[in-house]
What we know:
By secondary structure, this protein is α+β, with helices and mostly antiparallel strands. The protein has helices at about 5-20, 25-30, 35-45, 65-75, 80-95, 140-150, 150-155, and strands spanning about 50-55, 60, 95-105, 110-120, 135, 170-175, 180, 185, 200, 215, 220. It has a 4-stranded mixed sheet, sandwiched between helices. Strands 6-7-8 form a 3-stranded antiparallel sheet, with no helix packed on it. A two-stranded antiparallel ribbon has the order 1-2. Strand 3 and strand 4 (about 110-120) form a beta hairpin. The longest helix has 17 residues, at about 80-95.
Amino acid sequence: MIESIDRALAVLQLFLKEERPLSVTRISKLMDLHKSTVSRTMDTLERRGFVQKDSETGKYWLGLQVYALGMLFREKDAFPKVAYPYAKALSLQCNEGVHITTFAHNGASYPQHIILEKIKSPRTIDTAPPIGAVRPAYCSASGKCLLAFSPEYLHTYTGCTLQKFTEYPLPGLCRGTGRSRTRHGMHCRADFPSWNHYGGYQCIRAGRPANGGRTGPGHRSCQKDGGRH
């Protein structure tokens, strides 16, 4: 591992977590690095266009090179294009919102997922995170579905400490494939809650449906191996 590159990438990931402009002092505190080290890293990223500095506040925010890379990925990645027609059909059939998500393989200490595409519900106000947002997988409906049907990924985080972000997260991931410990006891992976609090259905790509194709009264879901919704 090249330490300087790893540090620069960690700074960019920090913006994903904080979702706001950051000063050198704040970055230094959050990453436990000396200010001079952070300052040199930010200067390098700024010269390459990956961050930009506000001349008035002195704080840094993501630069246009990050935007360009994100848009290039969205344009060229085949999965959302393949999944979108099915997600759109499900949205029209259920008259609800649908999210296309996948795991975020970013080295985090707890499982995370990223929203690749979303179809808004015509009936509810959209309060869900935007496209590109990275969120804890155990605190959202789509993330719980991903965990429930991705044994290898679930095994990676079995026994890890889960920070509470929502009112009813999964308190812990238990030993054994596809199981979770909840406040109601042990639930098999097919019984993971899949209905979110934003009024949207979670479309898993295709294949074997969770819980017989339903995740609760009046709620639908479909599933395919491979760790993507």
